Amino acid sequence: MKVAILGATGYTGSELVRLLHQHPGVELAFISSRGDAGSPYYRVHPQFYQAVGLALQPPALELIPDAVELIFCALPHGRSVEVVPALLDAGKQVIDLSADFRLRDPGLYKDWYGWTHSAPELLERAVYGLPEINREALPGAALVANPGCFPTGALLALAPLAAAGVVDWASVVIDAKTGVSGAGRTARPAFHFPECAESVKAYRIGDHQHTPEIEQILGELSGETVTLNFTPHLVPMIRGILSTVYLRLQGGGTPEQVAGLFGEFYEGDPFVRLLPAEQLPETRYVRGSNCCDLGWRFDRRSGRLVIVSAIDNLVKGAAGQAVQNMNLLLGYSEESGLAQVPLF
Amino acid sequence: MKVAILGATGYTGSELVRLLHQHPGVELAFISSRGDAGSPYYRVHPQFYQAVGLALQPPALELIPDAVELIFCALPHGRSVEVVPALLDAGKQVIDLSADFRLRDPGLYKDWYGWTHSAPELLERAVYGLPEINREALPGAALVANPGCFPTGALLALAPLAAAGVVDWASVVIDAKTGVSGAGRTARPAFHFPECAESVKAYRIGDHQHTPEIEQILGELSGETVTLNFTPHLVPMIRGILSTVYLRLQGGGTPEQVAGLFGEFYEGDPFVRLLPAEQLPETRYVRGSNCCDLGWRFDRRSGRLVIVSAIDNLVKGAAGQAVQNMNLLLGYSEESGLAQVPLF
Amino acid sequence: MKVAILGATGYTGSELVRLLHQHPGVELAFISSRGDAGSPYYRVHPQFYQAVGLALQPPALELIPDAVELIFCALPHGRSVEVVPALLDAGKQVIDLSADFRLRDPGLYKDWYGWTHSAPELLERAVYGLPEINREALPGAALVANPGCFPTGALLALAPLAAAGVVDWASVVIDAKTGVSGAGRTARPAFHFPECAESVKAYRIGDHQHTPEIEQILGELSGETVTLNFTPHLVPMIRGILSTVYLRLQGGGTPEQVAGLFGEFYEGDPFVRLLPAEQLPETRYVRGSNCCDLGWRFDRRSGRLVIVSAIDNLVKGAAGQAVQNMNLLLGYSEESGLAQVPLF
Amino acid sequence: MKVAILGATGYTGSELVRLLHQHPGVELAFISSRGDAGSPYYRVHPQFYQAVGLALQPPALELIPDAVELIFCALPHGRSVEVVPALLDAGKQVIDLSADFRLRDPGLYKDWYGWTHSAPELLERAVYGLPEINREALPGAALVANPGCFPTGALLALAPLAAAGVVDWASVVIDAKTGVSGAGRTARPAFHFPECAESVKAYRIGDHQHTPEIEQILGELSGETVTLNFTPHLVPMIRGILSTVYLRLQGGGTPEQVAGLFGEFYEGDPFVRLLPAEQLPETRYVRGSNCCDLGWRFDRRSGRLVIVSAIDNLVKGAAGQAVQNMNLLLGYSEESGLAQVPLF
User: What 3-state class would DSSP assign to C98?
Assistant: First the structure.
């Protein structure tokens, strides 16, 4: 089974290369890059020297070998939508890692991303690729919208409660802390080492573009209208997202109820780990792996439930989830190529 | 004017040494340490080599020179209370940097710290040393309870609104991110470099001992009963606390109202900086200084106000605030010895 | 094939668990710990939750299942020597990750480690487990002395030139930079996050215990007496060793000669990567992998050759090399279980 | 006394602003920037909010107020040389922080910087501003060439031995480790946080442009021709340079001789700290200060002396040294404005 990556030089792309390289069932047959076409891949990502022999191709669809059946689009937001329709017309399956097919309502692209969606008819066909809530819809799907990194962490923390309809949505606050690789591979002043080491900041309070994605899925799960505050923070580490979710349960709730809902919802899920009661998630314990660790505490004094989730933003938050989706799409074991223990 | 430090080898103690060393009005005449008595100070803190010539003394009160009029207690929680009564009896002024005199209700020590307070009569006499809310009470005070690092960041973010009585307390969530020096100077597994670099975690959710301190002061300011959720997080940096405070205002509130309340409350305060609208606080911009930077955003969609404060936990969160209190106690200019620009 | 680890809770031990867990040919059947016996392994190393179900056993040899044929000793220096003789007597193969069997001359233990070797007769039987110079001696060996982390980086930089007899030994300087995990998992003041983040230092100049190990092997390779200066530095990162080796070649040497010697010496070695001329090693490019990256520059002005090597100190510098040795010992493919691409 | 800074927005420029702001004898009257002219300074460097009220001016010399007598040029290499002649003609004193006037031989600019020097006649007039070796030449100088960051650390480690003529120059190796701020404030891929955190690398081996500067000054001090190897390394920290210098003394040398030469050479120097025998320099102990810490070890086995120096690259390696030079130029106390204790 041959696959391709469009946009293979960003962090998401290189993480896909890492994971697909060690996947037993697929062969990476084509990788492209606008800026580095013609270069051996290891020139751009020296960690792959002598492991990955491919050279980067220009992003011209006609260069993709016919034998390629599935394509990962790891292009910037707004560029996937220009390419995906043609890929689908050519009969390829597509897993898109951008935001371009995640939202159902085309109007939200105008509001949150600032551009008009040019292929709104695809928004309904796209399957939102969070296997833990959408596993049945994935086998054979033509187009998978791979979730954003922040939505993955936030949704896995909230999905069981949303699905059970027990959340007091007006009470929900999501405070997320991300490593710097989440900002992508392009050097910019805010991510220059001396500007972000030894510091923490909040950014895009109340207007981060992952907000409607989170609200949409929680709305679908709960059948309610969900409007919430999501606030991201930048933390001086390379990888990882820790999401701290504050909420009140309808009727107050009990620890037993919460444990029961989480246990049931994630039963059999290979990558969601409900931590033992005495532990809380830390991003280091999921580094390099496709795991999402979950823990929570009832704060009886304030009547709040505090849920914490930890993911590696480049794996479960991007490339690992894409491979998990591919496995489900193609009928491989869900864990295929993703069994690595986290790297301390 | 001669001053002394009991417990001079911890991070708070060494930061006091740094600031007092460059204070034009006082002379540091005595420093003590239980574990390092007899050693020149620079052996323990080599940054002071050739700058601070003092040697560490045993923590025996009779060794403190008579000429010392003011004493900083930078002892661990629970040890100050054993020492302070005798210092006051000897006629010394005391600025205590532990939690031992911050809470008014002696019962809270049992609940949150696990020990019974042995000098409850002093709790009423102690002045809570957050100058921005308590400046008038400081001149001539005998005993100052220097605020905790987390309470300083949280209270400065909330005080103007609490004092105006406009906070919907049930809505308040405080999510704080601290550097590792907040955990003190004792090596412990959780703060071993390989265990906390490249990672973030939440800890002590719902039961951190700074919670009642925050609630007490906000209760006093607002005249209301305040119960809230405070959740600290550990971030891989040495210094700094960023506090993100989520709340709803009674009646909804407006940006103008908030700006007005903050501007009025902090008018003339030399260390609180209300950032221009286009900026948000980052801990790097206060590093090494006594500043508290404040910024906020109205999230109209969720009806929330999100306030962010940044302090250096060792300066405004501990030693700098203690020097600020000393200045007010002794009649120096409030900024004396504290005028350094933050060190990028 | 069943294997065991004695001392499984340190960083070397946990890295062995990670690598053996994903090794297709062996089963990890026993893990021990003095301090944490009785605890499930994931309690000590939460990254293994739901992946490794083993519990830690007391370090009593009689508890090791009979079916275990090969044992990794990841005990502290000086403790392996107390255990290994009995293991060998019981017919087990042993890969020892301590320094206890690396030096041929028992007297060096007294000089550099401060204790008298209690099993000097084993020093001659032990095979020094650096496969790139000792591959032939490994199959079937009873006792492998796994090299130190610093020696691995330094020796791989120098071995081809030593073996060719072209080094002017009086000119050799080895300046190594290590991440903090090299200091082990025990919390100590020097490795407390606030004490080693944002700083660099040299330590143990001229008396680091890895010096005689480096000299011994270079002496064996070259047939000359080798005395050199090795200076380690501590760098604020978790993993990685970069070794910068300065030397003069006898007769001056040429770039072509050096390239030729390196190419020949490492031909077919799966883990040594001779970088293309335009690149130099960086520790991030080998993180999590068993690779050793090598690069060099001729400094014509000073007549020096400068060689740089990069390894992950916990993998090629410890656990990965031990698994590589196991593969050779047992007849598996040398790369078995070690094929992961470095984790950016 | 009014002073100005040309190029005030880089790291060197902002550190000058920090130090001059707290200098008791001078007033910062003019700051310029090519890219940010018109902006209040705090917009570019928010740490100065409410402390520094100046706005950035275009870099037009006619805008500099007449009352300004001394000008700091913190422009990029190659741009100072275009500006300094006119400043001198206008009767200003200039402290230039670029490399443009550090080398005596104009030909070296072609060789190492790649451009032809347009004002070679000024190279003889410029005083090399390393006060510890050139203090007498500074008072009243018209043009000071402020040393490079690496040369400062390397020269202070070697100057006493060079001046005594006891160095075997063929043996000298300088291995330097720098924080990332040394690369300047411009965001570039190599200094993007995820690309340089958790990693170490060597760069520009044998061809770094600070090499001839080091060689020139050591040659002047010793009266010998000096050709040596200087190799810089990038370390994941913001500030600091640790230089490890390896050498042999002529005739072997003794510890007493070395201690004597260092003690004599630096007697009375306020910023050079010869550490007690049991300590070695660490960059954290000089952070934010103008100190250079020095320590050394005799490695008897290899016959080498290993000297270690630590500086803050932005202070003693740039802006602090410039202020120290200004103090000497203008007759202030050498420590004026520079007395801060290092910030742990």
Answer: coil
For the sheet with A241-249, list strands across it.
A201-202, A229-234, A167-178, A241-249, A304-311, A292-299, A272-274
Closest CA to C25 of C1, C3, C53, C4: C1
- Name residue B270's amino acid: P
Q: Is B304 exposed, middle or buried (0-12, 13-18, 19+ CB in 10 A)?
A: buried
Write the pLDDT tens digit of every residue in A56-105: 999 999 999 999 999 999 999 999 999 999 999 999 999 999 999 999 99
| Shortest CA gap C302–chain D (Å) | 5
C190 vs D203: CA distance, rounded Å:
28
Beta strands in chain D (DSSP E): 2-6, 27-32, 68-73, 93-96, 127-128, 143-145, 167-178, 201-202, 229-234, 241-249, 272-274, 292-299, 304-311
Closest CA to D299 of C108, C249, C232: C232
Find the angle CA(A193)-CA(A197)-CA(A198) to the nearest 5 degrees: 155
Phi, psi of D80 (to 5 degrees): -60, -45
Among residues C98, C123, C96, the alpha carbon closest in space to that of C113 is found at C98
Q: Please tell me the distance in Å from B241's CA to the nearest CA on chain C.
A: 14
Residues D178, D183, D187, D189, CA torsion sign: negative
Give the rounded distance of the alpha carbon of C280 from its chain centre: 21
Q: What is the pLDDT of residues C179-218, one digit of tens each?
A: 999 999 999 999 999 999 999 999 999 999 999 999 999 9
Q: Which of A149, A196, A291, A292 is catalytic?
A: A149
Which of C192, C201, C239 should be substituted to probe chain B, the one whose Cβ sees the most B Cβ atoms within 10 Å? C192
Strand order of the β-sheet with D127-128 is D27-32, D2-6, D68-73, D93-96, D143-145, D127-128
Chain D residues touching A180 at Cβ < 8 A: 193-194, 197
Closest Cα of chain A to B39: distance in Å?
31
Catalytic residue among D73, D149, D196, D291: D149
**DSSP states of B209-261:** TTHHHHHHHHHHHHTS----EEEEEE-SSSS-EEEEEEEEETT---HHHHHHH
The answer for A 189-218 residues in CB contact with C (under 8 A) is 197-198
Express each pLDDT in D12-40 by its tens digit. Answer: 999 999 999 999 999 999 999 999 999 99
How do strand D229-234 and strand D201-202 relate by DSSP bridges? antiparallel
Polymer length in residues for chain A: 344
- Structure tokens, C331: 């007849």
- pLDDT tens by residue, D153-200: 999 999 999 999 999 999 999 999 999 999 999 999 999 999 999 999
Q: What b/e string do you get for D189-202 counting C-beta neighbours within 10 Å, with b at 16 or more?
A: eebbbbbbbbbbbb
Q: Is the pLDDT of residue D340 over 90?
A: no
Cβ proximity of B277 and B233 under 8 Å? no
Type of residue found at D79 = R
Nearest CA to D295 among C202, B50, B51? C202
CB-CB under 8 Å, B201 with A281: yes
Q: Using one digit for the tens of pLDDT, what is the confidence trace for D72-125?
A: 999 999 999 999 999 999 999 999 999 999 999 999 999 999 999 999 999 999
Which domains occur in chain D, in start order?
A: 2-146+316-330 (3.40.50.720), 150-313 (3.30.360.10)
Residue B149 among the catalytic residues: yes
Alpha carbon distances (Å) from A288 to B188, C218, C252, C339: 26, 37, 45, 15
A-contacting residues in B 124-153 (Cβ below 8 Å): none
Q: Which residues contact C277 (CB under 8 A, 6 or more apart)?
A: none
The set of residues, in sequence order, having a beta carbon less than 8 Å from that of B64 and lying 6+ positions away, is: B4, B30, B71, B92
User: Is A37 within 8 Å of chain D by CB?
Assistant: no
Task: Compute the distance between CA of residue A215 and CA of residue A169 in angstroms, rounded to an integer.
Answer: 10
